[in-house]
């Protein structure tokens, strides 16, 4: 395995990490409308991800920075090509971050309500758009001989990619729902489990269609295995949820995300961004990657830093392991 | 295409707006993280309540500020690919690495430990909680270091070779990129300017409360800490500015000639105090100069030759072929002056304040004040009258933002002074833009960012003002009795969290 293959795997790992972690905090954001009955419950939801959402988001920044360093051509084509959808995602992430930090900083009703509305939409929209983006990446887009994206923004809104968007949206919402069941106490916990069943069933149907479509289009043996794992884990997550095993349910919905994203990357390799115009114009791990020297330095970085990051981020989750309910939220403002 | 709407112009405007805006928050974040960590350390060591109250007060302002710094930083990570795809393709092999280092080492540090710090008051033992804010501080410094290394490579590319076959720059010596003198000098200059900024911020707000005789013990301590930070930061900013200037005379003579509006080389060269020139004709119409000083600034002696804009342009033409290699001279000239002027104005105010509020040194014993008294401002033997005292507090308050202006102009100067190059001597800015991104798309994104940032600025400033006015919080029972166990003491399972969103 050459270094650029290693980096293909590492980039996949970063995206998987991002979707696993920010997946549930996007989901929790969506639940502020779907599950919460009043302001107190909204605050419970927001506070389940309070200490961790920022660290989760860094997985995205790292995926971006690492792609820049390891696959400059991929970074350039992807982000200049998907310009407007990425703009929407960036705007959402900006507003979302500010919303979490500022919402409770003023007591006025309209101030808090506006930020809550912001949290809902800025969680929902990126959760959908990341699926659209990945649908397009793996399916291939119009890339010319210069590696420039020559399609329009409407080309990105094709049925396969849109279905991909619905899958990530529903999957992240499901992931967020089982996370809520795991992290809360009281009535909201019970309702989260009920909702998880419904969201999970919708997710299962959408994901199955999308993954089958992917498999039929470009799949091989390994991607079939990944798909089987994803589907089995989702079913098991639902079963665990019904059995009241919340930890298992969350872990298994995580496995679903890991396996589904891994499947997409498996069907992509050795391309990183296929061209639908001419196979010779596709960006691949070889023609899009950096020099061996850069990749070597980057590999050292990844080998040393990534386990450390996982260690101290994991520790954060342990520190904040206690379930919370409405009784744990103090005065409305401070 | 009309130059005003050329993709290059628009992309540059967008980059300028988003980056200058982002950098309003960066220096405050860097310095306040360290200052808050220092205050919290003082609390942990002395257990004096004023330090904890100061920690909470400045910590709150720090958090309001860092939130904006973090979210506007997200754009920076993707903007190179979005608007500068040809740049990204050409330099990604070199430039991407420090960005990846920044994300994987610094961003994770900052973001993870800030979460622990914000929510950890009742979850972490005192010393571990303190360690978290220090980790955040280290994260902010590392982050700045890596991104400055990347920028320094654009100012003065080293440790790379051009791969003709692939048509790109490739990294050959990463260590050199991280340790070249441009990087070290830029880091030194930016870090000290960051502390100058934080110091002025602290002094201004402390002055606001002391003028009203409110929250005296906390604000007295804050004033002292702010003044020392401001003076030390200011001193180092001046020193590092001088050394960075000398490095730039070697590496980018054009930038420095433009900074002085020195059209033709002179020996010895004068320092320009004021100039009004004719850019098309290539000379100044009005010039007020100090003889020999520029030679000194460039080469540490009052005699040597300093090349001018016209000579340098000629030399660059010989080296790189026909073209115009000078930046927009008035921007470089005035940017340079505003950077120095605003920065040093704050520094002077800090030095003055440090003298006026001295504790023992040459201070008549009768004017020494206690912990809970507003310090007297003593010029020589007698304290200043109430009007002059008030004037000093007001000056401190109203010049609080001076370093922000200086920082912005510093970056505008250093980036625009490098033009027409994006990577000095290697790649021109016009070759760096994304060919596939349309004018309409850039106009859209630029408008969206500008509008969004403007709205957020209003929200942020109002919020800061609210918390500044509110002053340091009263301490509760749980503040003074931090947990002894990781995850918090389980005395009462239903106890509300110390902090919640």
UniProtKB/TrEMBL annotation, chain A:
Belongs to the cytochrome ubiquinol oxidase subunit 2 family. It is found in: Cell membrane. NCBIfam families: cydB. GO terms for molecular function: electron transfer activity; metal ion binding; oxidoreductase activity, acting on diphenols and related substances as donors, oxygen as acceptor. GO terms for biological process: aerobic electron transport chain. It is a multi-pass membrane protein. Keywords: Cell membrane, Electron transport, Heme, Iron, Membrane, Metal-binding, Transmembrane, Transmembrane helix, Transport. It holds the Pfam family Cyt_bd_oxida_II. Its main location: membrane. InterPro entries: Cyt-d_oxidase_su2 (IPR003317). The chain crosses the membrane at residues 6-36, 82-99, 119-140, 160-183, 195-216, 222-240, 247-269, 297-320. GO terms for cellular component: cytochrome complex; plasma membrane. This is Cytochrome d ubiquinol oxidase subunit II. The keyword Hydrolase does not apply.
């Amino acid at each position: 395995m050459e270094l650029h293959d290693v980096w293909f795997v590492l980039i996949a790992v970063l995206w998987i990490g991002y979707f696993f972690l920010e997946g549930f905090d996007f989901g929790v954001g969506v639940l502020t409308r779907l599950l919460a009955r009043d302001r107190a419950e909204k605050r419970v939801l927001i506070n389940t991800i309070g200490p961790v959402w920022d660290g989760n988001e860094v997985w995205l920044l790292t995926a971006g920075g690492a792609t820049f360093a390891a696959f400059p051509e991929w970074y350039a084509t992807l982000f200049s090509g998907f310009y407007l959808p990425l703009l929407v995602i960036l705007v959402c992430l900006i507003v979302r971050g500010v919303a979490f930090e500022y919402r409770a900083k003023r007591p006025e009703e309209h101030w808090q309500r506006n930020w809550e509305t912001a949290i809902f939409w800025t969680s929902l929209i990126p959760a959908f758009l990341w699926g659209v983006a990945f649908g397009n990446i793996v399916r291939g887009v119009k890339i010319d001989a210069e590696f420039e994206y020559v399609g329009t923004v409407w080309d990105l809104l094709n049925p396969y990619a849109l279905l991909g968007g619905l899958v990530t949206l529903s999957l992240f919402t499901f992931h967020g729902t089982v996370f809520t069941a795991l992290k809360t106490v009281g009535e909201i916990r019970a309702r989260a489990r009920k909702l998880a069943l419904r969201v999970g069933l919708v997710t299962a149907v959408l994901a199955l269609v999308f993954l089958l479509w992917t498999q039929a289009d470009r799949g091989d043996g390994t991607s079939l295995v990944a798909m089987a794992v994803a589907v089995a884990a989702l079913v098991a997550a639902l079963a665990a949820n019904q059995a009241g095993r919340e930890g298992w349910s969350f872990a298994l919905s995580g496995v679903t995300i890991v396996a589904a994203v891994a499947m997409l990357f498996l069907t992509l390799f050795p391309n990183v961004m296929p061209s639908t115009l001419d196979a010779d114009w596709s960006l691949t791990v070889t023609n899009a990657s950096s020099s061996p020297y850069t990749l070597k330095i980057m590999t050292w970085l990844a080998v040393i830093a990534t386990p450390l990051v996982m260690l101290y981020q994991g520790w954060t989750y342990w520190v904040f392991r206690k379930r919370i309910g409405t009784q744990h939220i103090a005065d409305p403002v401070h | 295409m009309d130059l005003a709407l050329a993709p290059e112009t628009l992309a540059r405007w967008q980059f300028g707006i988003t980056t200058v805006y982002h950098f309003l928050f960066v220096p405050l974040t860097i310095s306040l993280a360290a200052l808050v960590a220092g205050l919290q350390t003082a609390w942990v060591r002395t257990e004096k309540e004023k330090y904890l109250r100061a920690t909470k007060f400045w910590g709150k302002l720090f958090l309001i500020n860092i939130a904006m710094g973090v979210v506007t930083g997200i754009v920076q990570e993707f903007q190179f690919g979005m608007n500068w795809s040809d740049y990204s393709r050409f330099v990604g092999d070199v430039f991407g690495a420090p960005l990846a280092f920044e994300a994987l080492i610094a961003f994770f540090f900052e973001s993870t430990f800030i979460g622990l710090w914000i929510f950890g008051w009742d979850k972490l033992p005192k010393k571990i909680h303190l360690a978290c804010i220090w980790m955040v501080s280290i994260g902010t410094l590392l982050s700045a270091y890596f991104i400055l290394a990347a920028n320094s490579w654009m100012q003065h590319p080293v440790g790379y070779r051009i791969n003709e076959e692939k048509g790109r720059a490739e990294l050959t010596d990463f260590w050199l990129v991280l340790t070249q003198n441009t990087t070290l000098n830029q880091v030194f200059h930016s870090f000290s300017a960051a502390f100058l900024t934080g110091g002025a911020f602290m002094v201004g707000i402390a002055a606001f409360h002391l003028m009203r005789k409110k929250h005296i013990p906390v604000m007295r301590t804050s004033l002292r800490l702010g003044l020392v930070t401001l003076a030390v930061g200011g001193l180092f900013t001046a020193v590092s500015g001088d050394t960075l200037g000398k490095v730039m005379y070697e590496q980018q003579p054009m930038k420095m000639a433009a900074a002085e509006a020195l059209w033709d080389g002179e020996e010895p060269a004068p320092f320009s105090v004021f100039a009004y020139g004719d850019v098309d004709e290539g000379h100044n119409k009005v010039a007020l100069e100090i003889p020999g000083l520029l030679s000194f600034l460039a080469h540490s002696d009052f005699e040597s030759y300093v090349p001018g804009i016209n000579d340098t342009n000629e030399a660059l033409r010989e080296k790189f072929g026909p073209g115009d290699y000078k930046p927009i001279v008035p921007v470089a000239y005035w940017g340079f002056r505003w950077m120095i002027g605003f920065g040093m104005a704050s520094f002077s105010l800090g030095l003055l304040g440090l003298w006026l509020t001295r504790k023992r040194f040459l201070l008549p014993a009768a004017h020494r004040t206690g912990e809970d008294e507003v310090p007297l401002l003593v010029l020589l033997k007698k304290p200043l009258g109430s009007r002059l005292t008030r004037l000093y507090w007001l000056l401190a308050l109203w010049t609080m933002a001076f370093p922000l202006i200086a920082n912005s102009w510093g970056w505008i100067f250093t980036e625009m002074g490098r033009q027409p190059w994006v990577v000095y001597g290697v790649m021109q800015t016009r070759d760096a833009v994304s060919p596939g991104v349309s004018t309409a798309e850039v106009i859209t994104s630029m408008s969206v960012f500008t509008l969004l940032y403007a709205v957020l600025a209003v929200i942020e400033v109002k919020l800061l003002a609210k918390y500044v006015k509110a002053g340091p919080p009263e301490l509760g029972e749980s503040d003074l009795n931090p947990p002894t166990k990781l995850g918090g003491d389980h005395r009462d399972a239903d106890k509300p969290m110390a902090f919640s969103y």
